[in-house]
Queue: 3 jobs
Job 1
Amino acid sequence: MKNFLLIASLASSTLFALSLCVAQEKKEAEWVSIFDGKTMKGWHVSSKTGHSGPSKNKSGGKWEIVDGAIIGSQDIPGNGGIIITDEKYSDFEVSIEMKNDFGPDSGLFLRSTEDGKCYQAMIDYHANGNLMGVYGEGLGGKPHLRNFTFQKLVTEIREDAAPVKLPVPADKWADFWKHGEWNELKASIVGNPPKVTTYIKG
């Protein structure tokens, strides 16, 4: 796997991507890289979101490139933020690889505005959190679809009532999601109102 590291802290929400599949008019969809592994070219930090928590600091968090990976963290306790692509996309599929600690609250924001309104593929890797459920961030919490909830330990999950079943039985989750290793996540968004599909490759 290509190196892609996500380190985010509680109360931060982050958007990362390595490649994007864009449907061009009269052309077949093709994958394009939207992160060069060296710089933040094509990305910018948004300081207009409500993810600063109690700090009220509007810096947008701390973002850096280390060993070919984007690392997002709080620049002061309680102050998170998001990064957004400079280019706007409508219908697309995005693929990321990530390796994060258990505890961060994060997300893959699809069609995000500068103030963070979006359809979020949740990456809430913490107790009472969820991976790759769908949440209407800044949209009144709708939709809010999740098929499981993490308990106090990363190896413990509770299956929730949801229209989409877990990709694997709850007791096999720890074998499917490689804690402390690189994992691949994908999400697609098509149409308006959109159909959002999320995938986890174990």
Job 2
Amino acid sequence: MIIWSGRGILTPLILVTSVVLFISISSEEIGVYTFPISILLAGVANWILGKKWNSASGRIVVDEATGERIELKSNHTLFWIKMEYWGVLFGIIGLGQLLRLIF
């Protein structure tokens, strides 16, 4: 069961799309580096999109009973983790794998 809110479902789709596209266009010279680089690029994409979408301002409503102002804002999460944090995780994994291959 996949649990997401807002556009959080795009997180795994960005990852899979990045891996498939990068593997399909890569050459044999960089073949071993293809997977880590694609994960790293998916991390960058998730970070940028997550920051953009999660920082957007919400709609302010006023509770008639108390007069309290409340901001209604959608969060874009996958398994309760914001998209930008998935980007950090993918970036760490991709960079770690890339460094493992280099050294």
Job 3
Amino acid sequence: MHEKLWQTCQKELNISNQPTPELMTFGNTKEMADELAELVLAGEKIATSSLLELYDYREAKISEVGDYALLLNGDSDAVAVVKVVRTTIQRFGDIDEQFAKEEGDGSLANWLAIHLPYYTQQLARIDQPFSNDVLLHCIWFEVVKLLSNET
């Protein structure tokens, strides 16, 4: 669905190391995906996190510095091309106020209120318990191209 758009973006941005687009979406509802995509476009969300264990479970590729992705809204429309600029592996219990703000959640208290139940639920789906020692793959990214519906 996004292949032709990706080919155009590859040419415009001189991306030759990534033949297929990574698709990046945030949240677990259409409304949340729209809201979080808007935060990215506004520069208020420059990071994200995910459970490291789920990468193994899903046999998914872990994002690396230099990777590009198409950021999708709640309708699965591409709204931007983002580039991964930094990654770390951190314990859930080590997430700090700065990262919470960079994830667009405003404060650590708000980040915890959102992510603790979400990650607990995600782990329960694969029969794993939650603890503060659970490892997160933390990703920082930058918008390198805004996309419109006409692109």
